[in-house]
Write a sequence for this structure.
C-alpha cells in the first residue's frame, strides 16, 4: 500500500484546482506543485525585461532561468534565480499575458521537463495545471479534470481579489477568464483538454470540501489497487 501516487489535476481558471490540489496534497502528505506559477514567473520576467514581443527572448528566459517553487503556509512561493517574485506573478498584467507566453514551444519544452523531474522524489505528488494529465504525466495514477460555469469561476476569482484588498470589476475578470480559456484550449501545443482517462468533476454547485472528499475517495480507491 506504500505506492506513491502521481495525481494530475487539470482544468480552466477558477475551477478550484489550486485550493483542491493543495488540500488533497496536504491530506495525503504529498508534494503540491502549481505548474501555472512557472508560466506566470516567465511571463513576469518577460514583462519586466520588456521582451514580450520576442519569442526568442522569452524562450531564452525559460531555458536559462532557475525557477524554484516552495510551498509553505498554504502558499506557493516562487523564486527565479534566487529572487522572490511570489507577489509579482498574479498581477493583472501577468494575467493578461500569461496565455500568450504559454503558447510558445520554447517556453513549454523546458518547463515541462522541469515538471516531469519533480516526480523524482520520495513521496507522492499532486500537480495542477492545464496539460498535466495529457503531457507532463500521461502515466499519472489518478487524473482529475475540474470544470465549472464561467459565472461561478469569475465570482470565485473576484472573491479572491477582494480578500487581497484588490478592487476589481467582475466583467473584466469574466473577459480575462474567457479569453484565457479560448487561447489555452485552442493552442496547437498541449491544449487544455480532458484526457481520455480523466474523471471530470463539475464544481459549479459543490463546495471545496465536497470536491476534496470526492477526489480523496477516488485516490483511495486507486491506492487499494496496489
Ligand atoms: O490559477 P489560474 O487557473 O488562473 O491560472 P494558472 O494555473 O496560474 O495558469 C496561468 C496560465 O498558465 C494558464 O491560463 C495557461 O495559459 C498557462 N498554463 C499552461 O499553459 N500549462 C500549465 N500546465 C499551467 C498553466
Amino acid at each position: 500500500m506504500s505506492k506513491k501516487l502521481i495525481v494530475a489535476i487539470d482544468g480552466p481558471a477558477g475551477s478550484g484546482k489550486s485550493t483542491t490540489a493543495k488540500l488533497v496534497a496536504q491530506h495525503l502528505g504529498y508534494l503540491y506543485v502549481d505548474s501555472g506559477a512557472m508560466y506566470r514567473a516567465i511571463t513576469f520576467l518577460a514583462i519586466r525585461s520588456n521582451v514580450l514581443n520576442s519569442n526568442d527572448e522569452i524562450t531564452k528566459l525559460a531555458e536559462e532561468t532557475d525557477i524554484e517553487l516552495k510551498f509553505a503556509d498554504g502558499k506557493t512561493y516562487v523564486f527565479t534565480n534566487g529572487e522572490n517574485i511570489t507577489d509579482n506573478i498574479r498581477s493583472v498584467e501577468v494575467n493578461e499575458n500569461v496565455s500568450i507566453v504559454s503558447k510558445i514551444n520554447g517556453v513549454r519544452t523546458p518547463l515541462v521537463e522541469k515538471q516531469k523531474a519533480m516526480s523524482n522524489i520520495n513521496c507522492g505528488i499532486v500537480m495542477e495545471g492545464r496539460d498535466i494529465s495529457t503531457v507532463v504525466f500521461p502515466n499519472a495514477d489518478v487524473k482529475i479534470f475540474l470544470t465549472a460555469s464561467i459565472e461561478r469561476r469569475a465570482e470565485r476569482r473576484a472573491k479572491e481579489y477582494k480578500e487581497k484588498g484588490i478592487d476589481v470589476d467582475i466583467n473584466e475578470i469574466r473577459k480575462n477568464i474567457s479569453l484565457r480559456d479560448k487561447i489555452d484550449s485552442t493552442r496547437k501545443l498541449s491544449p487544455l483538454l480532458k484526457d481520455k482517462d480523466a474523471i471530470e468533476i463539475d464544481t459549479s454547485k459543490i463546495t471545496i470540501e465536497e470536491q476534496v472528499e470526492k477526489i480523496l475517495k477516488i485516490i483511495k480507491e486507486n491506492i487499494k489497487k496496489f
The mean pLDDT is 94. Residues 13, 18, 35-36, 39-40, 98-99, 102, 129-132, 180, 184 surround cytidine-5'-diphosphate (CB under 6 Å). The domain at 6-216 is CATH 3.40.50.300 (Rossmann fold).
